[in-house]
Design goal:
Elements: E1 5-6, E2 9-10, H1 23-26, H2 29-42, E3 58-66, E4 71-80, H3 82-88, H4 90-95, H5 99-110, H6 114-131, E5 137-139
Helix pairs in contact: 3-5, 5-6
Length: about 170
């Protein structure tokens, strides 16, 4: 199981076949808000990396990847401020023209030189390219609040389907 870590940041990018399949995207709003509020309480309404405690905290899903079986498994959550959350989503930072500021933030939080951070960012994108060559199954079994009825994935014809989920 490959994984690029940059200090406290998991720099593993989500494979293409798993884009938009986070629980935040798939669950009904009520269920996702219950999960988010539970995790905010657990984290005492603070970013679990930098300690920020204002508005706009995000509930980040933590995933592990089984590269042999091509299974992406939800293993937890982390409450993050916007900047720390973006550092976990380097691909989104790149397409949002915010990768440079994100690398600066990672450098500030970790104390690493920006050049060292960029090398790890490049490694994360290489890992993403390899993983994106495959279709991944997704295991949401970690989360006790979900049931198949609450996941509303649509196929290309707009029909609800759970084919990609374990």
């Amino acid at each position: 199981m490959l994984m690029v870590k940059i200090g406290p940041f998991d720099a593993t990018l989500v494979p293409k076949s798993s884009w938009y399949k986070s629980l935040a995207n798939l669950l009904d709003r009520e269920t996702w808000n219950k999960i988010r509020e539970r995790e905010l309480r657990r984290a005492e309404y603070k970013c679990e990396i930098c300690g920020y405690s204002g508005k706009g905290l995000h509930c980040h899903e933590i995933w592990e990847y089984d590269d042999e079986r091509k299974v992406q498994k939800l293993v937890g959550y982390r409450i993050l401020c916007e900047r720390c959350h973006l550092a976990h989503h380097l691909g989104f930072a790149a397409v949002s023209s915010r990768l440079e500021e994100t690398v600066e933030w990672i450098s500030k939080i970790t104390g690493m030189k920006e050049g060292e951070v960029w090398k790890l960012v490049d490694k994360a994108f290489e890992e993403w390219e390899e993983r994106s060559r495959y279709t991944w199954k997704i295991d949401y079994s970690y989360e006790p609040l979900i049931s198949d009825k609450r996941i509303t994935k649509k196929n290309s014809k707009g029909q609800s389907t759970l084919d990609d989920f374990i």
